[in-house]
């Protein structure tokens, strides 16, 4: 059960006449919340800092003024790639952290609802160059696949923090590893990657400036319950002769 369907061979499914249901629109809040958690974990190095307790690092560096430093959100520029429902929900949540400026890039300029902070529509190039935090919440399609390549990482600030809770295939992962190793960007936080599950010995797991989560964007209790109910409704609708699915992809 999922909202995304990039793991399904749609051509083959259609060719075989198989019905497919999905669970869109019900995981916006859960994914937005996780995105904010991942951003803060990455910028303030929470997993790294926590490990310093068990690996003895704290005892060596106790109260050193520059130990475990990371940048804050106050006054920063946050750039969102793909300001759809999830992107907007992320922006709404981040506005409580004193962000100085929101910018976004994507297919089209959005007319934002009044309860949202203002955000400036900019070119992809400007998003890369001006953002302190770049958050990827766009959908994966032919236009976005591999969008974050070596050139994109070179164009980012050296202090940029890159967060992806969308799909791993939006990123040229080898280029990201290179950018993290070479200090082309400061850090990355990924809830999505290639492949999933990521092998435990993958190079990404060895980088201290990369925070990894095992694709848990929608892993929130009530969200999963709603997804399960919707999937059950879809199944019943799909199996009942003459029935319809609540959310049918094809
Ligand atoms: O349901 C999906 O498509 C997800 O990616 C959940 O995180």
Automatic annotation (TrEMBL):
GO terms for molecular function: glyoxylate reductase (NADPH) activity; hydroxypyruvate reductase (NADH) activity; NAD binding. Residues 36-217 form the D-isomer specific 2-hydroxyacid dehydrogenase NAD-binding domain. Coiled coil: none annotated. InterPro entries: D-isomer_2-hydroxyacid_DH (IPR050223), D-isomer_2_OHA_DH_cat_dom (IPR006139), D-isomer_DH_NAD-bd (IPR006140), NAD(P)-bd_dom_sf (IPR036291). Keywords: Oxidoreductase, Pyruvate. Residues 1-236 form the D-isomer specific 2-hydroxyacid dehydrogenase catalytic domain. Signal peptide: none annotated. It comes from the Eukaryota. GO terms for cellular component: cytosol. SUPFAM superfamilies: NAD(P)-binding Rossmann-fold domains (SSF51735). Belongs to the D-isomer specific 2-hydroxyacid dehydrogenase family. This is Glyoxylate reductase/hydroxypyruvate reductase. It comes from Hirondellea gigas. The lineage of its organism: Eukaryota, Metazoa, Ecdysozoa, Arthropoda, Crustacea.
